[in-house]
Amino acid sequence: MEGAVTMPFGIHLYSTLKAKFKDMSPCIFCKIVQNEAPANIVYRDGQVTAFRDIHPAAPTHILIVPNRHIDSVNDLRPEDEALIGHLHTVAGQLAKQEGIAESGYRLITNTGPNAGQTVFHLHLHLLGGGQMKFKMG
After folding, report:
1. Which of 55, 61, 69, 123 is catalytic?
2. Would you state the CATH architecture of domain 9-128?
3. How far apart are CA 92 and CA 70, in angstroms?
4. What does each C-alpha distance from 120 to 9, 20, 29, 60, 94 come to in angstroms?
5. Residue 98 phi/psi, 5° resolution?
6. Using one digit for the tens of pLDDT, what is the confidence trace for 75-128?
7. pLDDT tens, 28-66?
8. Active-site residue 123, yes or no?
9. Rounded CA separation 51/29 (Å)
């Protein structure tokens, strides 16, 4: 299909199966929030936890997750608006803490397998510390 965005078959298959069977195994991000899995946590409060990505795509790559499990943007409710605002406020605070606020950073939320979501727990990617490879606008 011309103009279609493609991803490697393995990632697509993994994401599709993970979405289908997500309730059969505990979410790794929930385990991190509950201190049941290791992570390099850089911020935590009553609403969100932030930790360094184990496969960084930039010199600074931090994941910011709600402490309450939400699969994706598609599962947000009107009462989650304050939480989503808080995720972004924390992202700004972390960008300052990491020394990337002035030079610039990118916030990304992948939703669904075709977007590359591999962990079905809503999260923001905070990326910075260098020139971004893909221009977004």
Report:
1. 123
2. 2-Layer Sandwich (3.30)
3. 21
4. 18, 11, 9, 22, 23
5. -85, -5
6. 999 999 999 999 999 999 999 999 999 999 999 999 999 999 999 999 999 999
7. 999 999 999 999 999 999 999 999 999 999 999 999 999
8. yes
9. 10
